[in-house]
Amino acid sequence: MNVIEVRGLDVSYGKNESTNHVVRSLDFDVRAGETLGIVGESGCGKSTVLRCLAGLESGWGGSIHVDGKPVSWRRTRDELRRMQLVFQDPFGSLHPRHRIGRTIAEPLRCMGQEASDQTVRAALIQVGLPAEFAHRFPHELSGGQRQRVAIARALILAPEILLLDEPTSALDVSVQAEVLNLLADKKAEEKLTYVLVSHDLSVISHMCDRILVMKDGIFVDEFAPGVIATGAAHHNYARHLIEASFF
Questions:
Q1: Is residue 119 included in any domain, yes or no?
Q2: Would 222 be classed as within a structural domain?
Q3: 197-246 pLDDT, tens per residue?
Q4: What CATH number does residue 143 fall under?
Q5: 87-102 tens-digit pLDDT
Q6: What number of CA atoms fall less than 13 Å from residue 64's CA on the CB side?
Q7: I need a surface site. Which of 16, 59, 107, 155 has the fewest CB within 10 A?
Q8: What is the DSSP code string of 202-224?
Q9: 3-state SS assignment for residue 156
Q10: How far lies 7's CA from each of 22, 65, 112, in Å?
Q11: Which pLDDT value is given to residue 131?
C-alpha cells in the first residue's frame, strides 16, 4: 500500500530567461513502512522534493496524495502533523535563544495541544537524552545531541511519516552511526515510513529499502540497496555515484 503518491511534481523558480527548473515532472510512490532513499549531488532538486512533501513549498505543480487523499501546499493541522521534517543542520534548525524544552514543545503548541513538562521530558528520553536537557540551550549540546533534539521535536506529534533531509551530513563521522541507529530504532518501534534524502550512498545503503537516483531535477535510476555492492546500476550517472563512493 502506498502512503504517498506523487505525479508530475514540477518546481521552477524565477521567470522567463532567469527561470530555474529545479524539479521536472517527477512520478514516484512511497510504500507504507518503507524507507525510500533519494540520492544525488547537491543542487539536483532532492531537498526541494522533501519541502514539497512537507508543505514548505508553495509554487509546485502536479499532485501529491497522502493515504489516497490529495494535499495542496496549504495543509490542515492533521496533514502537517502526519508528515514531519528533520532538517540537515541540527544547529540552524533550533532557535539559539530558546531552551530545548520550549523547542520540543513548540509543535504541540502550534497544533493547539497541551505541551506539559512531562511530555517534553518523555520526548527527550525517547531519543536517548537526559530529561534535564530541557533546561539547556542548543549551544550547550553537541551536534549529535542537537540532532536528537530535532528528531524528538518531529516525533512529539506522533507522525506517520518522517522526511529526513541529510540528517547526518552536518555531524562528525563518529556520531553519524548513533543517529542513524536511533532513526532505525524509532522506525521499528513506531512503525514509521521514511523518505531519506542524502548525497552519501553509504547512509542510503544502510537505511533504505529502495533508492531513487536524482540528477538535474529528474529520477534517472531506481534500485535496491544490494545493487550498490555490485555497482550494477542501470544509468551511467548512478554507476558513477556508486564507483565514486565505494570503489
A1: yes
A2: yes
A3: 998 888 888 899 999 999 999 999 999 988 887 777 888 988 888 887 76
A4: 3.40.50.300
A5: 988 788 899 999 999 9
A6: 22
A7: 16
A8: HHHHHH-SEEEEEETTEEEEEE-
A9: coil
A10: 16, 9, 32
A11: 96
* Cell of residue 82, nine digits: 502526519
> Which residue type occupies 54?
A
User: What is the span of the domain harbouring residue 215?
Assistant: 34-59+71-246
Q: How many domains does the chain have?
A: 1
179, 198 contact by CB (below 8 A): no
Report in angstroms the alpha-carbon separations of 136 from 71, 89, 152, 212: 37, 18, 15, 39
Could you please report the per-residue DSSP string of 4-38?
Answer: EEEEEEEEEES-GGG-EEEEEEEEEEEETT-EEEE
C-alpha cell at 89: 543542520
The reported pTM is 0.93
Looking at the domain assignment, is residue 200 inside a domain? Answer: yes
| Cβ-based burial of 74 (10 A; exposed 0-12, middle 13-18, buried ≥19) | exposed
Q: DSSP state, 171?
A: S
Q: What is the pLDDT of residues 129-159, one digit of tens each?
A: 999 999 999 999 999 999 999 999 999 999 9
Q: Please choose, from the candidates 67, 88, 28, the residue with its C-alpha nearest in 3D space to the C-alpha of residue 211.
A: 28
Report residue 47 as a C-alpha cell: 531537498
Is 6 domain-assigned? no
- The answer to whether the beta carbons of residues 165 and 85 sit under 8 Å apart is yes
Q: Does the pLDDT at position 247 exceed 60?
A: no
Amino acid at 223: F
Please determine, for residue 51, whether its predicted confidence score (pLDDT) is greater than 70.
yes
- The helix/strand/coil state of 86 is strand
